[in-house]
């Protein structure tokens, strides 16, 4: 008897988003893909760097997400930067629409991962950081690192 693997395995992550945005809330969404895109994502050939989500006609689409063409895909490969539909319930979409109606908020895909064999997207509601906010975050991170280093030296 074989056991199915459960849990999450992250396939792609948008690390730049945590630097550029304040993350208010996040939720899990399915994504509409074709077979060759799934195979390419499983190989780790997806990039979320400049991607964002947009609400059009009551549906959410992710744009600028780059999924490299599958090497053995031939004619079945699609455009790497095509717009892809996210799968959410109407109530979740209306909740996200309420957030994005406010000035300064946007929808950012944070990560792609597998859950029970299906590709999922962690979608976050984010507010853009200003340059001084980014500097403050870097200074706080450096200060925390120094404190941790001092504590480690002290207890040796």
Automatic annotation (TrEMBL):
The gene is smpB. The keyword Acetylation does not apply. GO terms for cellular component: cytosol. It comes from the Bacteria. HAMAP family: SmpB. GO terms for biological process: trans-translation; trans-translation-dependent protein tagging. Its main location: cytoplasm. This is SsrA-binding protein. It holds the Pfam family SmpB. GO terms for molecular function: RNA binding. Belongs to the SmpB family. Keywords: Cytoplasm, RNA-binding. Required for rescue of stalled ribosomes mediated by trans-translation. Binds to transfer-messenger RNA (tmRNA), required for stable association of tmRNA with ribosomes. tmRNA and SmpB together mimic tRNA shape, replacing the anticodon stem-loop with SmpB. tmRNA is encoded by the ssrA gene; the 2 termini fold to resemble tRNA(Ala) and it encodes a 'tag peptide', a short internal open reading frame. During trans-translation Ala-aminoacylated tmRNA acts like a tRNA, entering the A-site of stalled ribosomes, displacing the stalled mRNA. PANTHER family: SSRA-BINDING PROTEIN, TMRNA-BINDING COMPONENT OF TRANS-TRANSLATION TAGGING COMPLEX.
């Amino acid at each position: 008897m074989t056991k199915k693997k459960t849990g999450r395995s992250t396939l792609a992550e948008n690390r730049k988003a945590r630097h550029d945005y304040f993350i208010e809330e996040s939720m899990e969404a399915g994504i509409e893909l074709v077979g060759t895109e799934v195979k390419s994502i499983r190989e780790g050939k997806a990039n979320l760097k400049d991607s964002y989500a947009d609400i059009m006609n009551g549906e959410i689409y992710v744009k600028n997400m780059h999924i490299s063409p599958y090497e053995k895909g031939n004619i079945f490969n699609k455009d790497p930067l095509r717009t892809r539909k996210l799968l959410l319930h109407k109530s979740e979409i209306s909740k996200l629409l309420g957030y994005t109606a406010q000035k300064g908020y946007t929808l950012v895909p944070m990560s792609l991962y597998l859950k029970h064999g299906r590709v999922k997207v962690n979608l976050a509601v984010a507010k853009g950081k200003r340059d001084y906010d980014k500097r403050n975050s870097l200074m706080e991170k450096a200060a925390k690192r120094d404190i941790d280093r001092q504590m480690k030296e002290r207890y040796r």
